[in-house]
Amino acid sequence: MSDILAPRADVDSAPFWAAVREHRLTLQRCDECGRYRFPARPICPDCRSWKFTWPEVSGRGRVLSWVVTHHVTHPAFARQLPYEVLFVELAEQPGLAMYGNLRPAGAPVTSGMPVRAVFEDLTDAVTLVQWAPA
Amino acid sequence: MADAEGLRALRDQVAITGIGYAPFTKNSGRTPLSLALEAILAAARDAGLPVDGLDGIATHHVNDSAPVHEVAAALGLRDVPWYHEEFGGGSRAPAVIAQAALAVAAGASRHAVVYRALNGRSGVRMGASGGGRSVPGAELQYQQPYGLLAPSQSYAMGARMHIERYGTTSEQLGAVALQQRANAAKNERALMRTPLTMADYLSSRMIADPFRLLDCCLETDGACAVVLTSRARAAGLAQPVVTVRGWASVLGPDDLSKPGGDLTRSSAALVAPRLYSMAGIGPAEVDVAELYDAFSFSVLVQLEDFGFCAKGEGGPFAASGALAADGALPVNTHGGFLSEGYVHGLNHVAEAVSQLRRQAGDRQVDRAEVALCTAQPGYLTGTTSALMLARQS
Questions:
Q1: Cis-peptide into B316, omega within 30 deg
Q2: pLDDT tens digits for range B207-236
Q3: CA distance B173 to B25
Q4: Are B157 and A65 inside 8 Å of each other by CB?
Q5: B152 touches A: beta carbon within 8 Å
Q6: Cα B228 from chain centre
Q7: Cα separation of B268 and B304, whole Å?
């Protein structure tokens, strides 16, 4: 599958993508105040500590909102139209949210719907976190 | 927190003395520099100011325009003491005007011109991913792989949440598009002037559900410029005096990294109290509102966030007819980005100035004394800014 936009990891986010490659969802958690954060950042936005670890999280969440795209915004997605992008709040912490596609594509989606993380290997080097009804 | 007393002392001290445009088209066949120069020359002429009187130049862009030093050189201005150039699209026009107002108020510039020039349709398009253009930001790596690439998609998620929470309808979104098209019919600059019916709106193709084509702004080649001058000097220039009564900006929280996940409340809710504090007036005093309308939903959410109606009531408010030129709150009297053209915000400011000068012709709003001009970022909770303008008669 060559029609992809591979994530461009940076030094801060590399551990997240490396874990996803191993089908594990890990998030930064502050060692000082215990709060999770996403996306990956060098310091905690709550207590500004530089100390953190990458615990594995439950992969459970709920749908906050979603969009169904019918229009080509990039050639890589032309053959997937229409496709859903979900805005998912993780069970670990209120407001801790991330995006992902709905799997299977075209499944019914409702506000607040429970979802679980699933891992999709797009190439030998690229894996994405996606979301399926729980 | 900003020094409220310091800002209030600047209330109405700077005027917008000139406005100018380069034509809005879908394919200009010109450079952004050429468009910028046309708009700037027109704005200086409108102010009654010789071009050599300009001693400040500012703009904002997303690497799609002519930078300030090229514009100065092309104008033959060889000793410009104040300039300002920042990266950003829709969030920035009021913020850049605020910077220019600060410069003029401080005496760093006597007559500062702010421009925005772009080939938004024939060149770099915001509605796509920019053709491989590299966009900075730590968050994009978590969005692009999922095909989340355009502002239409992220605003659609806000609209979806608003629909689910408050019962907002397609027809209410459509009411914004229809009203603005009706306004554009009276505006010779507007690109889209053919009246729309609700059936036209509902049958337009889906772009990013719940957004249809007619919920989305145009992509436009063109330019707009405004000249700022101290209020004292403005009285000696060509036009009725319109002052900057207040401004406010905010670096909003990123959409993913802060708690809440509430996409029904935009960063305008952070800007509004600061703007009203500096201006010393509130939503009840606003006679005309030029609300940033990259999408129909942007208007609904700002009606709420700027306090014109309660949270969740933007849809019914728009559908009531309140936004018409003779309604309770005339909105986007030129047709806005949905129907006039999309040059990232400055055309809202120029239209507000025309309204306050009572020079808006067939689309003139009665007794326009105070106008609100707003910005919106590429996603709902990002960076934004707003201006309040006032007629001094």
A1: no
A2: 999 999 999 999 999 999 999 999 999 999
A3: 26
A4: yes
A5: yes
A6: 17
A7: 9
Closest CA to A100 of A87, A113, A116: A87
Q: What is the largest CA-CA distance in chain A?
A: 46
Helices (H) and strands (E) in chain A, counts: 1, 8
Query: Is the backbone of residue B85 left (phi > 0), alpha (psi -120 to 50) or beta?
Result: beta
A128 contact residues in B (CB cutoff 8 A): 145-146
Residue type, B370: V
Residues of A in contact with B260 (CB under 8 A): 94-95
Shortest Cα distance from B366 to chain A (angstroms)? 40
Give the Cα separation of B86 and B60 in Å (integer). Answer: 5
pLDDT at B129: 47
Q: State yes or no: is B292 an active-site residue.
A: yes
Residue A45 amino acid letter: P
Interface touch A67/B208, C-beta < 8 Å: yes
B260 vs B266, which has greater pLDDT? B266
pLDDT digits (tens, 9 = 90+) for B151-189: 999 999 999 999 999 999 999 999 999 999 999 999 999
For residue B261, give the chain A residue with the closest CA. Answer: A95
- pLDDT for the residue numbered B382: 87
Interface contact flag, B146 A76, Cβ < 8 Å? no
Who among A39, A89, A100 is closest to B146 (CB)?
Answer: A100
How many helices, marked H, and strands, marked E, lie in chain B? 13, 11
pTM of the model: 0.95
* Of the candidates B1, B10, B3, B2, the residue with the CA atom closest to the CA atom of residue B101: B10
How far is B34 from B16, CA to CA, in rounded Å? 23
Return the residue of B nearest to A90 by Cα. B261
Judge: A99–B143 Cβ closer than 8 Å, yes or no: yes
Give the chain B residue nearest A13 (alpha carbons): B138
Question: What ipTM goes with this model?
Answer: 0.95
Per-residue pLDDT at B47 exceeds 50: yes
